[in-house]
Amino acid sequence: MNPSTLIGIIASALLLATVVLFTAQAPSSFFNLPGLAIVLTGTLAASFISYPLREMQRLCRQIAVVFRREPQASELESDLEQLIEMSRHWSRGNIRAIEGALESTTNPFLRTGIQMVIANTREEEIREMLRWRMVRVKAKERTEAQILRTMAVYAPAFGMLGTLVGLINMLEVIQAGDLAVIGPRLAVALMSTFYGILLANLLFKPIAVKLERRTEARLMAMALLLEGIMMVSKRRLPAFIEEALNTYRAEHRDEMRDARRPQPADAAAESA
Fold first, then answer.
1. Can you say where in the cell this protein is located (predicted)?
2. How far apart are CA 79 and CA 74, in angstroms?
3. Whole-angstrom Cα distance, residue 176 to residue 141?
4. Using alpha carbons only, how large is the chain's radius of gyration in Å?
5. What angle do CA 127, 220, 261 make, to 5 degrees?
6. C-alpha–C-alpha distance, residues 241 and 138, integer Å
7. How far apart are CA 116 and CA 167, in angstroms?
C-alpha cells in the first residue's frame, strides 16, 4: 500500500475512534446496520443504474491499483532512458537493435510510437495516433473518477432517505404509544445521515481525487514521451533529445540564466 493512502487510513481510523469513544456514552450507538444498509445499498443500486457494468467492474480494479501503489518516477526515468537509447540506435540506422530494445519495453505507448517511427510513418500520423491514445486514456480514467464523485452525491441523499424512513417509523411508534422502541427508530434516522456524509467525504471523494491525480501524472508522462518520440522521428541528435527531455521534466528552472554558472556580480566579488 502506498504511504499517502496508509496515512489517510490511519488518520480516518483515529477520527472515527475519537468520535465513537469520546463523544458517546455507549460506543455501540454509532453502529447501526439498518442505516448503513440503506446508504450502501441505495448508493450501489443508483450507481449500477447510472453506469454500464463494464465501467463499474473497471472501477473496482482501478481502486485496487490505487490502494496498492502510485506511479513511480523511476518508471518514467526508465522509459526515457529506453527512448534515448533507441534514439542512438536510430541515428546509427541500427534497426535490429531498436527491435531488440522494443521487446523489453513494458510501456505500450512508447512501443507503439517507436514502431511507427521505424516504419517511416509520417510525423503528423504519429502525433495524431499517440494523441488519440492519450485522449482515450484521459476519457476512460476520468469516467472512473466521475463514478466515484457521483457516488459521493448519492450517499448523502440515501442518508437523508434513511432519516426519513426512521422518522416515519418513529411517528408510527409514537402514535401507537410504544415508547420503548423510539430510540432504535431515531438511531436509524440519525445514523443514516451520518453514514452518508462519512462515506461521501472520507471514501468516495478522496479516492476520486487520487484517481484524477494519477491520470494527470500518466498524461504528463505520456506527453513527455510523445515529444521524445517526435524528436526521434525528426532524427534529432541523441544528445539534443536527452537535454530536451531533461529540460521538460525539470520541476523548477530559471529560463533566463543557468544557476550553475556564476553571475557577473559574483565573479566581480570573487576577483576583488
1. Cell membrane; Membrane
2. 9
3. 53
4. 28
5. 105
6. 26
7. 65
Q: Which three cell numbers stand for residue 119?
A: 516504419
- The residue type of 183 is G
CA-CA distance, 225 to 251, in Å (whole number)?
16
Q: Identify the pLDDT of residue 268.
A: 47
Chunk the chain into consecutive blocks of 10 residues (it has 272) and report each block's average pLDDT, rounded to whole numbers.
Answer: 77 81 71 87 94 89 74 75 89 86 88 90 91 91 91 94 83 68 71 90 90 87 90 88 80 46 48 46
**Would you state the pLDDT for residue 158?**
94
Calculate the alpha carbon distances from 143 to 54, 58, 205, 211 in Å.
Answer: 12, 10, 14, 10
250: helix, coil or strand? coil
- Cα-based distances in Å from 217 to 56, 206, 266: 23, 17, 39
Query: How confident is the model at residue 150, as a pLDDT?
Result: 95
